[in-house]
Structure formats: C-alpha cells, structure tokens
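Technical appendix A lists one of the benchmark inputs used to test multi-chain prediction within the project. The record comprises two sequence entries:
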Amino acid sequence: MKTFNADERGYYGDFGGAYIPEMLWPNVEELRQNYLDITGEASFQEEFNQLLKDYVGRPSPLYFAERLSKKHNTKIYLKREDLNHTGAHKVNNTIGQILLAKRLGKDRIIAETGAGQHGVATATVCALMGIPCIVYMGEIDIARQAPNVARMKMLGAEVRPALSGSRTLKDATNEAIRDWINNPVDTHYIIGSAIGPHPYPDMVTRFQSVISEEIKWQLKKKEGRESPDYVVACIGGGSNAAGTYYHFLDNEDVGIIAVEAAGKGIHSGESAATSALGKEGIIHGCKTLLMQTTDGQITEPYSISAGLDYPGVGPLHAHLYRSGRGEFYSATDDEAMVAGLELSQLEGIIPAIETSHALAIFEHKTFKPEDVVVISLSGRGDKDLQTYIDYFKL
Amino acid sequence: MNRITQKLQEDKKLLSIYFTAGYPALEDTVPVIKSLQAAGVDMIEIGMPFSDPLADGPTIQESGTQALKNGMTVHKLFEQLEGIRQEVDIPLIAMGYLNPVMQYGVETFCQKCQEIGIDGLILPDLPVDVYEKEYKALFEHYGLLNIFLITPQTPEERIRYIDSLSEGFIYMVSSASTTGARQGFGEEQEAYFTRIAEMDLKNPQIVGFGISNAETFQQATQHTKGAIIGSAFIKHLTEEGTNTIKKFVGQIR
C-alpha cells in the first residue's frame, strides 16, 4: 500500500534521513534503535496516556464552531489543542520524549526554543520528572519573549542564550545540537518539532498523532463518520500539522491543507513560506525544503508569529508538498491577524498567532457548505497579547 | 597517484592545518595556503564556510561568519584556487558541510575540484550509508578521496565499516566534542588512541580536535600517522594575522 509515513531509514519520499556528523551518530543511533520498542511497550503507553489525561487534560475537545461556520458557509470544527496544559500542542511531544528519556536512563535534558512554547513545555515535563533542563534560545528571542523566559526559569530550567549566527531559532537548534555532541552519554535532546535527523520527525509525529486519533472518534460521535473532508493546520517546522494529519495521511478522501507564514508577502523578502521559497537541502540533520541563498547558506525567515519562522519544514511536509498530497497555502501577517481577531469575536477564543494562520485559510480557499473542515487550534493567544495589542492598537 | 596517498607513504608524522577560506580577509585564501606550504606543513584542509556549522565550536564558527560577510562562496573559492597547482604541491582537502555542495551541484563540484587539483573531501554531515549508495562512484570518478570521521563513541563494527569504505586516511576525532572545545589529552584519549592503533585498520589515522601545540601534537601522533590543527590556527590568524604563519607552524614541530 502507498504510504506517506517514514520508511525504516526515516525517508519520506526524497526527504528525511539522518545527515549528521559522526559525533552525533551514537546518540541518534541509540534513539533510532529504541524508540519504536520503548514507545510500543504497554507500560509506556499506559503512563503516556495517563499523563495526557490527568496532567495535560486530554482528550482536547473537538468543538463545532457554529458562528464561524455560518460566516464561511461550511462546517468548521476546531480541535482545541489550546486547552492543553501549557497552552498548546507542544506538551504532547515533551511528555512522550521525557518518558522515553527516562527509560533510556538519561538524566539531563536539553531543548531548543524559538517563541518559548516548546521551551516551556520541556521545562514543565522536566519539573514534573525532576530532571535538570537546559533550554537554548536565541539571544534576540530571549529579548522579545520575556514572559516565556520567566516561565521557564520559574519551572527550574536554565535558559542559555544562543549567541551565534542570527541568534534566533535555527541558531538555538545549532547550539542544542552542539551541546549534545559534547554530552553524548547522559543527555537527551527533546526536539520540539517534526524536524531533525531520523528518528525525530517520525517520533515527534507519533507523539503528536494523538490529535488525529481523537479527531476520528470525536467526529464519529458528532457527524457519524471518522473522516472529515479536510484537515487544516499551520506549519512552521510542522509538529501540530503532522499530528493533525497523521491518521488521515493514507486516506486520500481526506484533503490535507497546510498554511505557512507568508510574513509581509511571499516575495517581499520577509517571509517564512518554505514550500514556496525553499529548495531541497540539509538543515539540522535532515534533507528537506529550506530557505537558503544560491550558495547554500541558510537564510533567516520572517513572520509576525515567532513559532512559524523556521527556515525549513519537516520532511513529511516537504513530501506532502512535492507529491501533491497536501495543498499548501500561505497567509500574510495581516491575513493571520484579521483571522485571529475574527475567531476571538465570533467564538470567544483568542488563538495563538501561529494558529491564526490556519484560520486564514478562508481567505484562500472556498469550501462547500456540506464540507466538514477540521482546523487544528494549535495554541492559545495569551502569549501573543502584546502583539495583538500593538497590531490593532487595542 | 593521489597526493594524499603519496604523502601518507612518507616516513614521518604528518601535520595538517585547517583554515577557513576567505578569512581573515576574502583574498587571504591563497596567501594562507602558500604560507602554510612554505612553513612546511604536510597537508591543508580548506574550510568552506557555512551559515550553520553544527559540529564547530565558537572559534571556527566565527571565522566562518566573518568569511561569509567578506563575501566567500563556493564559486568564489574555486575562482581563487584556479592555478593553485602551479605553486602548491602538498595535498589539498576541501572541508565543509553538505548543503553548499548540494546547491553547487555535487557532480559539478567534484568536477571542479578535479580541475583545480583538490585531492580529497571531508563533509562531516554526509552519512556513510548515503555516501556508499549515492556518492562513492562519483567521488572516485573525479579522483577525490572521501575522508570519514570516527570518535571515541564509534562502535568497533562501525569503525571497520568506515575503514572498508575509506581510502587515504581516517579522521580520528579525539573526544566527543565540537571543534576547539578541549585542550590537551588525558588518559581517556590515550586509551582511545591505543585501542584504535590495536585494531590494525587498513587506513592510517590522523587525529583532529584538541591539538594546539607541540605537546598535544606529539601525544596525538604517538600512535597515529599525524594530526590536524584547526581552531588554534584560526585563533592565531585572528590575533596575529597572516604574517606569522611560519612562527605558528614552527612552534608545533
């Protein structure tokens, strides 16, 4: 059967793999050899599911957005990842990885973060398990995401500034990888998105796949069928999207829609629309589409949303794009902000600006009135209040 | 015969120096190579700067960032190196990350290396299995030796596999670290050097990472064929410029 999942070497079509220096090989190989066995164990599943239920608050509701549906003349369901503990889908993955790290006997955790959401989710599970946590964060991001830096510190994590390169997410990721090279034995690196060398994209996708697993049975109850006509998600690296699509990937009756951040416009020079602007290459140990110069230097993306400005995209998504399985759109800063305000005022839900990009799909695509469209509401907007205030002069 | 292979047959411990192309100034590439040859080094690794060098510590990172600011690109490097073989006869190895090579076009890159007289490549993020499947035939066609890395954590079976695919030498990373992270060797390295020596590999080994002076050069080469100095040389270039290269090399041996 045709499948859009990773093969045993971590390839999604042309993309994926593990393009890592030999210094990282033992760490990555240890994970590769163990992640399926460990996560498949009954005791792992039991602990994972228990924590998702009692600690994260899952299942997250699948909410029929009646007023939004009326406005766009289609049936819209929102998958409420924003109601998770720590306010976004990120925690699904960090819970899974911390349990894996414990079973591998690791006693030190490192992570990278851009906006700070993944950093907070990692610091949270490290506090929960009593494991020391170091979060690498670009110096520039530290300055512009002060509340999340404070949250991580309050949770007991050490936030280390990434001072190299452009001092943002991609450089924080480089620093975390360097840390892992220098600490190969005792440390587990919790990557926050469906990126990095195999097995990370597949592993993160599997932990996030709880999103689409729940959508299936929730939709069955509400609509009498497991499969929607479309699933829609925003994409930076692509972890919430990967989880939202996972159980529908090989069911081609379900349309897969990805919304990237166009920033100030795809061709404005200030954009993060990787599928449109990226070329095949290697970033952070993975072959995928990435934004780069003709000389192969990785460029700095831009988006109003700090969670979407990654210069690459997970290899699953690169494959969905190239194979035509996914429909890719991009929303500008302005379109996203307007869509975020619209959801707030029609449904009483203030979304994260990342999520607002997914909500801007209605600017780009018209659905049939009878279509069932599930949108991943990946995070809540509390962290973005200042950006909304500045933008709308509230 | 490939210049690297030839050099490895000489009855001496080899000193290889890494530097970043286009550093400290864009046009320093060729003068640095000539000065290194004049100072008596055996082999040179020409670093191709990359925006995201994840195996490198701050010293080499910063030199790369500066080189890119200076305007260094793969195209520019090849331009600078044209005609280098009229004046330089020691082995030259191009070292860098895979992405810029992919964007240049792997085959065109190899072809250009052959034209210029590059003898080998070190691409740390090119995985061994991908090399074997996709690149080996190509590299061989253009007479380029691909140099692989091993570390103290590399399992024996994998070292044997790497040895079987290598021609030239094996780049032995002295400790689990990024470049420039450590100075000096302890018992752990000593044990590692001995262990590898006892494996009796087909390829000679050259040690890199952690070598900065005569003492560490001697320690590193006691059981191996040679040693590579990178960060310490970049540091020297940063602090003293390109005029005292002979002095730097003279301090090593």
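Chain A has a mean pLDDT of 96. The longest strand of chain A covers residues 255-263. Comparable benchmark entries are summarised in Table A2.
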